[in-house]
């Protein structure tokens, strides 16, 4: 269980990114965090692996508070999947997957490629699990397509069988078909291990399809917390109302995936 208790964050320049965020995310839940640009989604996710230090409140994982003493041990239980994949493009696909062991294997050992046969077998099995043919193993990661790179990113994230996976807009740079495949892979890999997933997204349809739970954020606060069924078009509109056009998610045709604003009588207008 991840517990955010009255979490707040004010960046050194005075930007208030999180205000009084309290959430309990049970083990195994696929929790999607949605909200306009700047709502605080990434800041919230990064509290869970210590990349962001909150200025107020507490964060616990299974009752253990994240602090300087516990950080190292807790980090080993949390993996991350990034929007821009964050692979080492000159390194082989296999090397990138094996780098998921860095929290427990020394950097020197990793640089020298000293991985156990068991580690190598696991990397191969994970690559196969995410649908990458073994012939890609020795290719440089930079030669792969975006979708293939994110598959490598998923395999890397699951190398240590993490209890928590943070997926920060993992499909933002992928087309809709690949996005679904990628989220399905994350969901399946997480279910197989009872891994908790905190996933920030911009696409309402994907949030509804893949989330067990949707947390809507705005201006650093949680303004919606419920199931996809409860996340009605009206709720969507409330979450994004007033957001600038540039802040709103767009589908593959560039049109907004957010419900159009209601008219004065509260009716959905016809086509925009
Ligand atoms: N290092 C930083 N220093 C100062 N302000 C920051 C820093 N990182 C983020 N912020 C600010 O904190 C607020 C929340 O940012 P955050 O990246 O968490 O939002 P987000 O919801 O993930 O946005 P997006 O969907 O665009 O990624 C924003 O106002 C952002 O400009």
CATH class assignment of the largest domain: Alpha Beta
Strand order of the largest sheet: 6-7-8-3-9-10
**How many beta-strand elements?**
10
Share of β-strand residues: 15-25%
Number of folding domains? 2
Principal-axes shape call: globular
Bound molecules: adenosine-5'-triphosphate
SSE order, as H and E?
EEEHEEHEHHHHEHEHEEH
Low-confidence blocks of residues: 247-272
| Largest β-sheet summary | 6 strands, mixed
CATH architecture tag of the largest domain: 3-Layer(aba) Sandwich
**Termini separation:** 42 Å
Number of helices: 9
Radius of gyration, CA atoms, in whole angstroms: 19 Å
Class by helix and strand content? alpha/beta
* CATH homologous superfamily title of the largest domain: P-loop containing nucleotide triphosphate hydrolases
Which fold name corresponds to the CATH topology of the largest domain?
Rossmann fold
Descriptive key words:
single chain; 272 residues; alpha/beta; Rossmann fold; 2 domains; 6-stranded mixed sheet; 4-stranded antiparallel sheet; 10 strands; globular; disordered C terminus; binds adenosine-5'-triphosphate
Task: Report what the structure shows.
The protein is α/β, with parallel strands linked by helices and about 270 residues long. It has two domains: about 1-75 and about 165-180 and about 190-270, 3-Layer(aba) Sandwich (Rossmann fold); about 90-160, no CATH class. Helices cover about 30% and strands about 20% of the residues. It has helices spanning about 40-45, 70-75, 95-100, 105-110, 115-130, 145-155, 175-195, 205-210, 235-240, and strands spanning about 1-10, 15-25, 30-35, 55-60, 65, 80, 165-170, 195-200, 215-220, 220-225. Strands 6-7-8-3-9-10 form a six-stranded mixed β-sheet, sandwiched between helices. It has a four-stranded antiparallel β-sheet with strand order 2-1-4-5, with helices on one face. Strand 7 (about 165-170), helix 7 (about 175-195) and strand 8 form a beta-alpha-beta unit. The chain is globular, with a radius of gyration of 19 Å. Residues about 245-270 have low confidence and may be disordered. The protein binds adenosine-5'-triphosphate (ATP). Adenosine-5'-triphosphate (ATP) binds near residues 11, 39, 40, 41 and 42.
